Amino acid sequence: MMPTRVCIVGAGPSGLYVAKALKRYIQGVKIDFFEKLDQPLGLLKFGVAPDRQSLRQTGQKLVQDDFRFFYNVTVGKDIQIPTLLKDYNFCVISCGAESPVSLKIPGDDTLGVFDSLDFIRWYNGYKYIDTSGSVKRYFNRLATLGRPTTACVIGNGNVALDVSRILLAPEESLLDTPKTLINDISAANICKVNVLGRRDWIYSKFTNSELRHLLNSPSLLSVVDPSVNIQDSTNRILQRKGDIYKSMQGNWGSEKNKILQFHFSTTAEKIHEEEGQVARLDVKKRETVHFTSIPCDLLIKCIGYTHNEIAKELEKYIDNKRVFSSGWFKSEGKGDLSATIRESVELAKLIAGSSH
């Protein structure tokens, strides 16, 4: 009997976890990866914050000897899905989503407004798309202001927390980061980060473990305005999250050199510039009609990603019979690693059922 052959488009976390699960559910399965870069791991290498090295080590363990990797191959450009299906029983498209989503507000193109991937790639030394230079130049520009600066991070998921944490991180926590980059972040003198989410705290996608890590951080103070109504919940996970936010409310009014403030039910309405760069952000609470203007020397968007033109073409082949999608390609940049692992296992079971 011929072994089941599966090709996976993208050798990032989703594809690797699908492959791991397929080995468990399909005996003798043969798995090949087609990866546009010259190395595997994707976001496990270029999307993990420098103070989360254990995640990168986890990724290395997923690259198994019996997988075959074809690098520098862009599926949809160098080779097409119908061609792959001639040699493989199934195809899993897990090449992520990396086109930024616009805020669609005035000033979105102002100097000093970046997508989270630009910033993340900069601090992880991503060499494949040249956005690092513009981020570095802007941080050098912030250093010339000669005063404490404020950043705004828009988004209510763990990516927003990673970005915020790195902006406020002490040098000793960035052990796997080039010294020049540490110097750039330090010289920008960011002393406060405002994290803005358009929905209520109940719907924030931060994991409790990440919030707890922030709450217990000796290097920064996490705060929530005491006026925010943190209700009790019968859901155990939500109750714990609410308790963490209540502890952050208890920090209100305390002083520390580095502050991270969470703003819920808050939408960004307009970006203002002064002297050629972002200076202020108009925001509006959901229950009001009035705008509030807050200082903003740097704005980073963590609001998800969408597909580029090649990925949009790949979508057309998904039939959930022989061609499947997974990870951020499926969710368009939403979901944390734990969700990716769960969904990868479920997809592997589905494919295993179809292979009989």
Automatic annotation (TrEMBL):
Reported cofactor(s): FAD
Record keywords, A-Z: FAD, Flavoprotein, NADP, Oxidoreductase
Domain (FAD/NAD(P)-binding): residue spans on this chain: 5-212
Keyword Flavoprotein appears in the UniProt entry: yes
Gene Ontology MF terms in the entry: oxidoreductase activity
A Pfam family this chain is assigned to: Pyr_redox_2
Source taxon at top rank: Eukaryota
UniProt-recorded name of the protein: FAD/NAD(P)-binding domain-containing protein
Species whose genome carries this gene: Theileria equi strain WA
Taxon lineage: Eukaryota, Sar, Alveolata, Apicomplexa, Aconoidasida
